[in-house]
Design goal:
heterodimer; A: about 190 residues; mainly alpha; Four Helix Bundle (Hemerythrin (Met), subunit A); elongated; B: about 600 residues; Cytochrome C Oxidase, Chain A; two-stranded antiparallel ribbon; about 60% helix; globular; binds protoporphyrin IX containing FE; binds copper (II) ion
């Protein structure tokens, strides 16, 4: 929609859109910091029930780690203007992102079917909400990647503007790192 | 550091970095403006600012009207007003305000004034209006996100308004929405649909503030014109910057709290609920292990920064207006920035002073006492600097200046009572009494409104190319200042006597019915003060169309960049190139000169600030 053009003297500085993204990430971090600290406070209350994560979440961890790798190489390919490779890698990343969501869903199902529902006040209720919100952020990333994917095909591809690619890939790495944090958090703090 | 932002471009244009000097004739890049793109879905920061302002004014009238209604009840608990039944129907059966409705009024008054008026209406207006103009940018870093920010606010407004019309009435658990009242539909009428709409509206509101805040921060840090270093930006910009930082880091935590609350309401979880017997259904609830204090932590982690989100923009504008109208440099520019910074940091570390009597561990409480009282230091620095700026100034008593001086007076009065409340031992007595009501209305409510008014009177000529009427402005100022003190000062005594807040009728309560006359007096003054605000609203809209025209581009002889634009600037702000900045904004009365605009190079003999 809107684009900011910058002259030479500003090129050394970060692009405002990239900068906005970083501040936005700070905001998302605060949201999850709020939720995980609520978890820690809540842990001391009576009738707390700890939750064990099913194996599926280990698989989804592997998938999202892999997708970080593919988005990283996609960015490198774009930089080299190797558009064919870029398109392929973006498609793979989108696929891995969707796979991640599916795996999360499977993990939720396993917990749910083992009788862990929303009523109660233990770890699993937090897990549903926190992982669910994380999943929404991943979905946002998938949409961003899809937009770039479509752009990469429909444009007459004279556009070598790095900014959107970098914004999307930074965001993707972020949701990956956020997942690692949440995963380790739920592993360690019971 | 300079930038030439091209505001609109054809959808498939190629972005090329580098040579874009032709950007100065930028208007030819514009597509045709239609009514819709100019006034409704505008991406011009100045128009968005006006949208925030006018929406804020409408909300202020509604929110103010709520307070008139409940003051009527507090002042005349034994009388009935048949007209109320005609207007409000079942909410005022027999001409008397019903209890559920009283609580709904108080809740909506708080929510509307805190969030919709003094957050969106204040920051939304002046961050949008002043940031690009004062730092020398054509628009925000992302005009599109900026537009979204307004429309999310608009959506939040629509949802909140609609909650007034549902069968069971709007939310009524207080602006803080503590569970269990807010978590259990059966707890009260207002805990039903009204509460859901409240939460949805607030979630939309949070999104709006985040979109706005992100934009403000990256615009201030990335889009300043050539020469505009961070030590040359006006204090308004610094204040708006810290405001945005506070919002971006604390609103998401509030959102987390709301999400958990929503699950407690509808998902069957027990984050906040435990051991509850519901009188309306005569049932003990199964919820076990929840903690209502957890909600308080999450709420006040935003709630306290929020009060500074409301106050800081006012502080920034007051600093700027005071320097301009004292014809003197602001005293202690760096100390002003430093104290804003200190307040921002401390704002994140004191939230539990709202929870001293919630069962919080007293040892933890004493840490929060210390941190809370520390805020007095940066606050005192600011007051000192304002007073020394006034000292021996060539003061021009414009309406904006009067409101700025009034702001300082109110900030001192209300800040001092904060020191009482910050002591956890005293707070055992004072918590939830009218003393707290007096404290926060003076220091936050009225003071920030004064900042808002000062800003409107000062920048109205830039917004609309006309002046507000001065006679009405002076009347507005004096009645509001005196009225505000008459309303809130006596509440300190009521509070010290132990009179609790959130009760609708003290007439049968022997300890407090001695205050019957005083309450009536307060109610009468409130109505007068409210009427004078309507005069301001009239002045505002009348002057947009009929006010005296501005004929010079710099009516206040000010140094800052917004006054180097044409009287009615177009989208893009400067028709030519963006001016370069050579000095700080506070060179007033320097070397025998009245004022030296920021665009003027430092002379050979001159010492730069
Ligand atoms: C020296 C400075 C200040 C101190 C030590 C202080 C301390 C306190 C304390 C301890 C309370 C809790 C009282 C209670 O509920 O029992 C309180 C309430 C409050 N303060 Fe302050 N305050 C200060 C300045 C401010 C400022 C500058 C603002 C706003 C701009 C503000 C806004 C509020 C509000 C809105 C509440 C009441 C919230 C509610 O319960 O509804 N305070 N203050
Ligand atoms: Cu506070």
């Amino acid at each position: 929609m809107d684009t900011v053009m910058i002259n030479d003297s500003q090129r050394k500085k970060m692009h405002p859109h990239k900068f906005t993204l970083w501040v936005g990430l700070g905001s998302i971090i605060m949201m999850f910091a709020g939720l995980t600290s609520a978890y820690i406070v809540k842990r001391d209350q009576p009738s707390w029930i700890a939750v064990d994560m099913p194996l599926t979440f280990w698989y989804s961890t592997a998938v999202i780690l892999l997708s970080s790798l593919t988005v990283h190489t996609a960015r490198a390919a774009f930089k080299e203007r190797n558009m064919l490779k870029y398109r392929r890698l973006i498609s793979v990343t989108v696929f891995l992102g969707l796979l991640f969501i599916v795996l999360q869903y499977v993990g939720f199902n396993q917990l749910w079917n083992s009788g862990l529902r929303m009523n109660g006040s233990g770890g699993v209720q937090f897990l549903y909400i926190i992982f669910g919100l994380h999943g929404l952020h991943v979905l946002g990333g998938i949409i961003a990647l899809l937009v770039m994917f479509i752009n990469a095909y429909s444009r007459r591809s004279r556009s070598y503007n790095m900014v959107p690619v970098e914004v999307a890939s930074t965001y993707w790495h972020f949701v990956d790192i956020l997942w690692i944090y949440l995963f380790v958090f739920f592993l360690v703090i019971k | 550091m300079s930038n030439e932002a091209i505001l609109q471009k054809p959808a498939d244009a190629v972005v090329t970095h580098g040579d874009h000097r032709e950007g100065n004739g930028h208007s030819e890049h514009h597509h045709k403006e239609t009514f819709i793109s100019k006034y409704v879905f505008s991406m011009d920061h100045k128009m968005i600012a006006k949208q925030f302002l006018i929406t804020g004014i409408i909300w202020a009238i509604i929110g103010g009207l709520f307070s008139v209604l409940f003051r009527l009840q507090l002042g005349y608990p034994n009388d009935s007003f048949p007209i109320l039944e005609t207007l409000l129907g079942k909410w005022a059966k027999g001409g008397k305000i019903q209890p559920e409705f009283y609580y709904a009024l108080v809740t909506m008054h708080g929510t509307v004034l805190v969030f919709f008026v003094l957050t969106a209406g204040l920051s939304g207006t002046f961050a949008n209006f002043l940031i690009p103009l004062q730092i020398g940018a054509r628009d925000m870093a992302s005009p599109f996100m900026n537009m979204l920010s307004y429309w999310f606010f608009w959506a939040a407004s629509v949802v909140m308004i609609s909650s007034l019309f549902v069968e069971t009435g709007p939310a009524s658990g207080g602006w803080t929405s503590y569970p269990p009242l807010s978590a259990l539909g059966g707890a009260s009428e207002g805990s039903k649909t009204g509460m859901d709409l409240w939460l949805i509206s607030m979630a939309l509101f949070v999104v709006s503030s985040l979109l706005g805040g992100l934009n403000y921060i990256s615009t201030i840090l990335n889009m300043r014109t050539k020469g505009m270093s961070m030590t040359r930006v006006p204090l308004t910009i610094w204040a708006l910057f810290f405001t945005a930082v506070l919002g971006v880091l604390s609103f998401p935590v509030l959102l987390s709290g709301f999400i958990l609350l929503l699950f407690d309401r509808h998902g069957g979880t027990s984050f906040y609920l435990s051991d509850i017997y519901l009188a309306s259904t005569q049932q003990a609830l199964p919820n076990e292990g929840g903690s209502a204090i957890l909600y308080q932590h999450l709420f006040w982690f935003l709630g306290h920064p929020e009060v500074y989100i409301i106050l800081l923009p006012a502080m920034g504008m007051v600093s700027e207006i005071m320097s301009v109208n004292s014809r003197k440099p602001i005293f202690g520019y760096m100390a002003m920035i430093g104290s804003l910074f200190a307040i921002t940091i401390l704002a994140f570390l004191v939230w539990a002073h709202h929870m001293f009597v919630s069962g919080l561990n007293p040892f933890l409480g004493s840490v929060f006492v210390l941190l809370t009282l520390l805020i007095a230091v940066p606050s005192a620095i600011k007051v000192f600097n304002w007073l020394t700026t006034l000292w021996r100034g060539n003061i021009r008593f414009t309406p904006a200046m009067l409101f700025s001086i009034g702001f300082v007076s109110l900030f001192i009065s209300g800040g001092l009572t904060g020191i009482f409340l910050g002591n956890s031992t005293l707070d055992i007595h004072l918590h939830d009494t009218y003393f707290v009501v007096a404290h926060f209305h003076i220091v936050m409510g009225v003071a920030s409104f004064f900042g808002l008014f000062a800003g409107v009177y000062h920048w109205f000529p830039k917004m609309y190319g006309r002046y507000l009427n001065n006679t009405m402005a002076y009347l507005h100022f004096w009645v509001t200042l005196i009225g505000a003190y008459l309303i809130f000062w006596p509440m300190h005594y009521e509070g010290l006597a132990g009179m609790p807040r959130r009760y609708m009728d003290f007439s049968q309560w022997v300890s407090f019915n001695q205050f019957g006359d005083l309450n009536r007096f307060i109610s009468i003054v409130s109505i007068i003060v409210f009427a004078v605000q309507l005069l301001f609203v009239f002045n505002f809209f009348y002057s947009i169309f009929k006010g005296r025209r501005v004929t010079t581009s710099n009516p206040w002889d000010s140094n800052t960049l917004e006054w180097t634009t044409p009287i009615r600037p177009g989208h893009g702000n400067w028709p030519g190139e963006i001016p370069e900045v050579h000095r700080w904004p506070y060179d007033y009365g320097k070397d025998g000169r009245e004022f030296i605009p920021q665009t003027e190079p430092v002379g050979a003999q001159e010492t730069a600030h």
